[in-house]
Amino acid sequence: MEKVPMTLEGYEALQTELKMLKGTERPAIIQAIAEAREHGDLSENAEYHAARERQSFVEGRIAELEDKTSRAEIIDPTKLSGDQVMFGATVVIADCETDEEKKYQIVGESESDIAAGKLAVTSPMARALIGKSVGDAIEVHSPGGTKDYEIVSVEFK
């Protein structure tokens, strides 16, 4: 079974969502299905079909979250150190053409959010950064084309 790397923060977010789905959403859907059944003929009951569709989505998400949390390999970036980029590192990079700096933390796939500066470890940018050090130049190949960056700083927090 392949481990899923994630930060403690990402793991806790998945656990919170799982608890909400099991404790709030699931009972609400069961209630909605019961109420829709009381309306009679299920073949033409839109409320029943909508509730069953929502139930299918929620049960699928619960299964996905249970799988990820059971295979989670929690990595605490505060316990890491060094000058090489690895999972959990917060990296500042500078665009070689514009000198514009961007700051990213390399995190697990399920917790990535580019707007919040959280970069999935499987993304082209993260793959280019892994193993590099401050001062190294990287070339990132993405669907939008190739860009060159320089690593300005690497920290673990």
Features:
5-stranded mixed β-sheet; Helix Hairpins; Chitinase A, domain 3; 2 domains; single chain; two-stranded parallel sheet; 157 residues; alpha/beta
Instruction: Quickly count the domains.
Output: 2
Structural class by secondary-structure content: alpha/beta
Q: Would you count the extended β strands for me? A: 7
Main pleated sheet = 5 strands, mixed
State the low-pLDDT regions, or none.
none
**C-alpha-based Rg, rounded:** 22 Å
GO molecular function: DNA binding; RNA polymerase binding; translation elongation factor activity
Keywords: DNA-binding, Elongation factor, Protein biosynthesis, Transcription, Transcription regulation
Pfam family, one: GreA_GreB
Domain Transcription elongation factor GreA/GreB C-terminal: 82-155
Description:
- With 157 residues, the protein is α/β, with parallel strands linked by helices.
- The chain has two domains: 4-74, Helix Hairpins (Orthogonal Bundle); 77-155, Roll (Chitinase A, domain 3), CATH 3.10.50.
- Helix content is 39%, strand content 25%.
- The chain has three helices and seven strands, in the order βααββββαββ.
- It has helices spanning 8-37, 46-70, 124-129, and strands spanning 4-6, 72-74, 90-95, 101-107, 118-120, 137-142, 145-155.
- The strands form two sheets. It has a five-stranded mixed sheet with strand order 5-4-3-7-6. A two-stranded parallel ribbon has the order 1-2.
- β3 (90-95) and β4 (101-107) form a beta hairpin.
- α1 (8-37) packs antiparallel against α2 (46-70).
- It is elongated and about 70 Å long.
- It starts with a strand and ends with a strand.
